[in-house]
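ASSEMBLY PREDICTION REQUEST
Request ID: AP-0331
Submitted by: J.K., bench scientist
Number of chains: two
Total residues: 219
Priority: normal
Notes: Please return the full assembly, not individual chains.
Input sequences:
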Amino acid sequence: GIQVEQSPPDLILQEGANSTLRCNFSDSVNNLQWFHQNPWGQLINLFYIPSGTKQNGRLSATTVATERYSLLYISSSQTTDSGVYFCAVGNAGKSTFGDGTTLTVKP
Amino acid sequence: DGGITQSPKYLFRKEGQNVTLSCEQNLNHDAMYWYRQDPGQGLRLIYYSQIVNDFQKGDIAEGYSVSREKKESFPLTVTSAQKNPTAFYLCASSIGGEEKLFFGSGTQLSVL
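STATUS: Completed
Returned structure:
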């Protein structure tokens, strides 16, 4: 099956810093999604981004499908950004998740 | 409010017991999914259904069973054949296969 690799596995930032999270995948996909999982386990869909660039406030994402990767940018990070960020790629009617990047933002 | 409701929030299973996790959605979505999450790991697909009365095995279906008799409901049964059931279980839905996923708040299953 398709392989999804996320990097870095862990990231610690000071409040106000910027960061870039990466998602690589091993085969062609029909879509790509980024999620944030809060400390209570709730998964929130941040972006549905099969290709191109999207922005939502301090967050933006870029997917380059031909090169099989996606990037999630977080600017001016806040403590509420802490949690685990997952990317998921869609292929053959289902989505496969990476192992996530755990982000800790310190005040 | 439209959304996905999972119940119970916490569930305990005794040795040899089958337990059923509930997932209900009122988003009018055709596709529904069950994922398992172990500590510090990503989500792994157990079963998915793209239409009523039809479902497919995911990557880790052994020891689990599902039904899809109604569009809004997709219950998951963890059978006694699943030897390591302790995990966080997440249900999701989408308008169709490979579309934007929406998740419930999860069920934490533990073994007594």
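REVIEWER COMMENTS: The CA atoms of residues 53 and 85 of chain B lie 26 Å apart.
SIGN-OFF: pending second reviewer
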